[in-house]
Amino acid sequence: MTTTLNLNGNIEIQLHPHNVLPVIENQSGTTVVCENGILWLTQPDDMKDYMLESGEQMILGTHGKVVIEAMSETTLMIISPN
């Protein structure tokens, strides 16, 4: 069974190295901002995986489940499109 985190509004999250954020049920247009550290991100219907470093951000292009893992001590912000 997989834990799903449903997002409403904006949330800041701190992760330790190799911690995996529960699967996120996002809306298209949700923004993930790596405030510090390095994170790995994968999203549905996208053959690529992404690494975000401090100061980088990504606007998620699809609605669905996203997995995020910290590669180092990481603080990230998830910004809902609404």
Map the helices and strands:
Elements: E1 4-6, E2 11-15, E3 20-26, E4 31-36, E5 38-42, E6 49-53, E7 57-59, E8 64-70, E9 74-79
Would you give an account of this structure?
- By secondary structure, the protein is mainly beta.
- The protein has one domain: Jelly Rolls.
- Helix content is 0%, strand content 57%.
- It has no helices and nine strands.
- The chain has strands at 4-6, 11-15, 20-26, 31-36, 38-42, 49-53, 57-59, 64-70, 74-79.
- The strands form two sheets. A five-stranded mixed beta sheet has the order 1-3-8-5-6, with no helix packed on it.
- The protein is globular and about 25 Å long.
- The model has no long low-confidence stretch (mean pLDDT 84).
Q: Which strand order does the major sheet show?
A: 1-3-8-5-6
How much of the sequence lies in strands comes to over 45%
Q: Which of globular, elongated, flat, extended, rod-shaped describes the shape?
A: globular
State the name of the first-level CATH class.
Mainly Beta
Features:
mainly beta, 4-stranded antiparallel β-sheet, single chain, 0% helix, Jelly Rolls, 82 residues
In short:
The protein has 82 residues and is mainly β. Helices cover 0% and strands 57% of the residues.
